[in-house]
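Note to self: keep these together.
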Amino acid sequence: MEIELHQLDQRYAGLRRQDARRERALLASLSEIGQQAPVIVVRSESGGWVLVDGYKRVRALTKLSKDTVSIVAWELSEPEALLLSEVMRSGEAASALEQGWLLRELRDRFGLSAVELGRRFDKSASWVSRRLGLVEELPEVVQELVRAGRIVAHAAMKHLLPLARANAADCAALARVLGAQLLSSRQVGVLCQAFCAGTEETRQLVLTAPLLVLRAQAEAATPKEKTAVERLTAELSAIAGIARRARALVDREPLRDAGAAQLKRLRFALQAARAEAAALFTSIPPEVMNAGPGDAHGDPRAA
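Structure:
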């Protein structure tokens, strides 16, 4: 069955967040092969068609300037259809924030209690309360940015929600800046941490130049490349440690009881070690070898 796009009541568009990558892929598919799966609708009390599932497809068809959409009508009430659509949802699982939006809609529009919602979702009333708490504590500007795909839902819940509980105005101001940059969850976390722990000057820098702050943080976290002297010092320290352990082994374990084959391999190893050590110390400039004070007996352990 097909109807005109303008006949759809899209009252539940705000229950799902948008994903630009998925929507681009869907747009390309619809452009190439057309609509393959119908959207799901129910009849409203006034007799119109209420869109329950298929908002991405409807947005894509609208962008393609299509006039009609293929539908399948469920003979269910709106709340029952919304619940069934959530159960049948495929692809990416709903975030806790999206679950909160659906629960709030069912509570406010249809008067379902926390106990009844918990029963319908096969969850506890406290689970329902926690999800509702998310949407009630997080500023609406943040939620709108999540819906629009400008802020990752996980980042909003993990990083912005604690800030909102402390200062809702600061959270809203920071969210507007973050939403303009399309940042990853990790980047949002870095900026939130810098904003919350920083001075007033740092906070202003986060709000006015967030990418500069991210670049500075990345450079600070990048390990500095060691110089040749630092690398050589580390290698020599490793050689000294190996030599100490080998000497301790010689002191503890008698070697005369070894078999002929074992002693032969040991001699080869000793010759190779002596030759490599001699070549190493010969290659180091004399001024480096004599640059610092040493132990009179040449034993660095006594220094």
